[in-house]
Amino acid sequence: MALYDIRVIGDPVLKKRARAVEEVDSALVRLARGMVETMYGASGIGLAAPQVGVGKRLFVWDVGAGPRIIVNPEIVESDGEWTFEEGCLSIPGLAWDVVRPKQVHVVGRDLDGNEMSIEADELEARLFQHELDHLDGTLLIEHLDDDTRKAALRALRQSGVGPPLAPPAPSTDGGLRLP
Ligand code: ZN
């Protein structure tokens, strides 16, 4: 089973809303299995299709009960509030405390077309919200406040990851411009 390259922040595929899966064919099954292997290879607990460059609405996860796959997932209900340190395979090496709902109810389909309905709490609920974000083109850093996000982008650039530097804003006040 081939492993996929995991796309990292700055890759445009991570900012696009993924399309609904119309049909589960053998290519999609291969994709899902490859995603599971890729997730394990990266020691992750969840991986969404855009993270391997595929703009389709599915993700895989394993919070200790074996690999699971869901197609066209939706959060139909969420409740509570929980702060937890959250990282992302597409934002290597960084993690932040992020507040999100504590419980979610997710529905979708498995690879055989059967309905899935999962009431999740804490870690699994967190994971579902994180992966759903990926399917909507939202990255974890968008949940951070401005200062924390800027610091994160600086740290990523210093480690050679991340979006290209924006050109410096033109100086309008005659102040010092740094390169
Ligand atoms: Zn992620």
Structure description:
- With 179 residues, this protein is of the alpha+beta class.
- The chain has one domain: Peptide Deformylase.
- Helices cover 24% and strands 28% of the residues.
- The protein has 3 helices and 7 strands.
- The protein has a 5-stranded antiparallel beta sheet. A two-stranded antiparallel ribbon has the order 4-5.
- The longest helix is centred in the N-terminal third of the chain and has 16 residues, at 26-41.
- The radius of gyration is 18 Å and the shape is globular.
- Residues 88-90, 130, 134, 140 line the site of zinc ion.
What are the main properties of this structure?
two-stranded antiparallel sheet, 3 helices, 179 residues, single chain, Peptide Deformylase
Would you count the extended β strands for me?
7
Number of domains: 1
Please trace the helix and strand order, writing H or E for each element: HEEEEEEEHH
Beta-strand content bin: 25-35%
Task: Tell me the name of the CATH homologous superfamily.
Answer: Peptide deformylase
Principal-axes geometry comes out as globular
What is the averaged pLDDT score?
92
> Which fold name fills CATH's third level, the topology?
Peptide Deformylase
Bound molecules: zinc ion
Characterize the biggest β-sheet. Answer: 5 strands, antiparallel
What is the rounded Rg?
A: 18 Å
Please identify the top-level CATH class.
Answer: Alpha Beta
The residue fraction in helices comes out at 10-25%
| Number of alpha- plus pi-helical segments | 3
Uncertain runs: none
